[in-house]
Every structure is written in C-alpha cells, then in structure tokens.
Specification:
By secondary structure, this protein is an all-beta fold. The chain is 0% helix and 38% strand.
Length: 145
C-alpha cells in the first residue's frame, strides 16, 4: 500500500492592526486683559494764597541820611506776616525785617537802611524783596550819600 498524501498548504496569515486614533486638539486661547485706566491729569495751579501783592514803592529813594525809608505796597488780603529782605545785586542778603499781622489795603512799612549789624549801607543799588503768603514783589533801593 502506498499512501500518497498531497499536502495542501494554504497559508493563512492573520494580521491584527490596532490603530489608535490620532488625537485632535482644538487650540483654545484665553486672553486675559487687565483693564487699563487712562486718566488725564488735572493740574490746578496753586498760588501762595491769593492775588499777588501790589508793586512796592520806596520813598525817599535815594534816602537822605541814615533815617529809615518807607516802603508802600498794596495788600489784597490780610497777612499773618510780611518780610522785607534787602539784597545786593550779587544776591547777598544784607538785612531782614519782619512785620506781623498786616491788614489788607495800602500798607506802609519802615525799612532801615543798615545791615544786620546796624552799619549804614554803602553807596550802590540794592533790591528789597517783599514776601508774604500771597506772593512776593521786588523794588530797587538806591543809596547815595
């Protein structure tokens, strides 16, 4: 007996393909804005307290002798204190006199023509600065002896 066998070979291949889905991302952007406040600065000019004082007048100018001179100016409002300062043309302070409680209106004050030590001022041009809380004003003083 002869057994004849014919092998039948049927190749069978099984392939399992596992696909993972590709993740899809939808970009989400979040915008956070801090509110910006724009403001226009309000500038309010501040004066020293009110209308400026009137221009000072010194008489007699030039003074005769060593007697004090008078300085007259217009005060728009009452002042707690008025300072009279005498300067040289080189801005060196020579003398200072203060007067308290000055009323409003036309004011006349006395100004000595001496330095802080009491010595008479030398010939020349000096500046008198009248200072109050309302402002200041300047007058020229001429000394001729």
């Amino acid at each position: 007996m002869t057994i004849t066998q014919t092998p039948t070979l049927t190749p069978t291949a099984t392939r399992t393909l596992t696909r993972t889905p590709i993740p899809t991302f939808t970009p989400t952007s979040t915008l956070t804005q801090t509110p910006t406040q724009t403001s226009s600065p309000t500038i309010t000019p501040t004066f020293m307290g009110g209308p400026p004082i009137g221009p000072p007048i010194i008489y007699p100018n030039p003074p005769t002798g060593s007697a004090p001179v008078s300085i007259q100016f217009l005060m728009p409002t009452a002042a707690a204190e008025v300072d009279l300062k005498v300067f040289t043309t080189a801005f060196r302070k020579i003398n200072q006199v203060s007067y308290p409680n000055i009323p409003a209106g036309l004011v006349t004050l006395s100004l000595p023509v001496t330095d802080e030590k009491g010595a008479p001022l030398a010939n020349g041009v000096y500046y008198v600065l009248v200072t109050t809380r309302q402002g200041h004003a300047i007058a020229k003083l001429l000394i001729l002896r």
